[in-house]
Amino acid sequence: MIDDEAAFAARDKCAVVGIGQTEFSRDSGRSVLTLATEASLKALADAGLEPGDIEGIVACEQDTVAPFTLAAALGATNLSYWAQTGPGGVAPCMMIGLAVGAVLSGQAKAVLAFRSLNGRSEARLGKGVRGMDAETVGGLGSYNEFFLPYGLMTAGQTFALMTQRHMLEYGTRPEHLGAVALACREAANATPHAQMHGRTLTMEDYLASRMVSTPLRLFDFCLESDGACAVVITSAERARDLPRHPVLIRAVAGGAPPDLRPGMMFPVVSRDDMTDLGGRLAGEKLWKRAGIGPSEVDVAQIYDCFTISVLLQLEAFGFCGKGESGPFVASGAIRRDGSLPINTGGGHMSEGYVHGMNHIVQAVRQLRGEADMQIAGAELCLCTGGPLPIGSSVLFRRAA
Amino acid sequence: MAHYLVPTTTDRETRGFFEAAAQGQLVYRACNTCNHALHPPTGHCRHCGGWDTGWRQAKGTGTLHSWTTVVHQVHPGYPTPYTIVVVTLDDTPEVRLVGRLDGQPALQAGMPMEAWFETLPDGTVLPQWKPEL
Lengths: 400, 133
Hints:
By secondary structure, chain A is an alpha/beta fold. Chain A has a domain at about 5-120: 3-Layer(aba) Sandwich (Peroxisomal Thiolase, Chain A, domain 1), CATH 3.40.47. In chain A, about 30% of the residues lie in helices and about 15% in strands. Chain A has helices at about 5-10, 30-45, 65-75, 90-105, 155-170, 175-190, 205-210, 235-240, 280-290, 305-315, 325-330, 345-350, 355-370, and strands spanning about 15-20, 55-60, 80-85, 110-120, 210-215, 215, 225-235, 245-255, 300, 380-385, 390-400. In chain A, the strands form 2 sheets. Chain A has a 9-stranded mixed sheet, sandwiched between helices. Chain A has a two-stranded antiparallel sheet with strand order 5-6. In chain A, helix 2 packs across helix 3. Chain A is globular and about 55 Å long. Chain A starts with a helix and ends with a strand. The relative contact order of chain A is 0.19. Helix content of chain B is about 5%, strand content about 40%. The radius of gyration of chain B is 16 Å and the shape is globular. Chain B starts with 14 loop residues before the first helix and ends with a strand. The interface between A and B is large, with 47 and 43 residues.
């Protein structure tokens, strides 16, 4: 087994020192490279650094902007470390982990992590998985030949199958899913840059929204957005000399479910328990590595591709018992004044969908004390990624 | 592209499933050493570490584990509504396969399901599932 000494040794040794983002919109009118460049330059300016200070760039494997292309656009001529991770929304937390590894191993003094997509105007994720336009679908290790020909084509349909199981086993109700959508919308209503800032959402609105794939409705789905986010990571020691209050990376952990199957998201249907996520093991490792438990967390950014993904991750990361997430969110726990306010910029549901990266930016804002919907006294913020087929997480801590 | 999505039937790992389907047989991959099923199929057994795996005949019956009725149409060849069913094989709980039913039929978790074989316009045969009569 892996010796956790190294994981403990990484505690609080690195920090996020700069954040940047573009406008989130339905049509940016610009290339993803231009969006990535703008977000990165803003993050660098926020950190008080120049492109030449960046030695490492980490990216999501689904990003069409490669690290070296962004380096070229930025003029980051000292690039000496780069990496891509994934899959998809699992990437941002793992990107933070890559950055920590690069900094602590001496491969890069400062690392830029970014995600850029025109997820609404150019490459809509809701249109199905990659490779559907081929003459025959699947093969080459995708295993999509077992699913696409049956009309199982999207993440939404997959999460609908998981939701149905959760409802059957635990009595989870539409109103429980709606409580997640409403909490995110409430945060967006308080966040001027959020795409749904000016639009309120009631439970009646939620329940009246059209079915997409039963039992999931329109407002169970995240937005599809154009936009980019970037953050700068360096050592905690160096962070003390930079202008912004450092946000320390307390611990990072990924995790796979016990009954992991080969393939991307569709094979989840064969798992012994399709509502038991890899996030559970990620959480167990994270809390151990951090020396901090879920009850101490002040605020959380929970990966919300769908409302059900929030419910399942609240269970996986130990905020409530298995099957108890419905009543937990219905109690108001995840709202602004609850015990665990989540997705405090509006999340993917209502702020914008930057594939997990806007959650990292929001976590940093909360711990700097500069969020639009600021949680008073926030010192610990959990950020999660995923949740299929594997999970990822970071615990951030405000520096003393 | 208003046509069915045709599965790749020549993949080195999965072609046996479609070769059997073309003969009207439903099969799944299993480890010949420890007898665990391996789905989606892999050549290496994660349970015992063995490499001796092969295709086994399934009964063609199962139970309904989950389902979703797709209302929002994604692909022109798949008009909505249709219902995706997830079926646990009676042979082994380690294998679940999906099928498609027209419309929004009344379904119940655990109900018995049976396999049938759909021949796509190009001749490819796809195992499908329907409620047992």
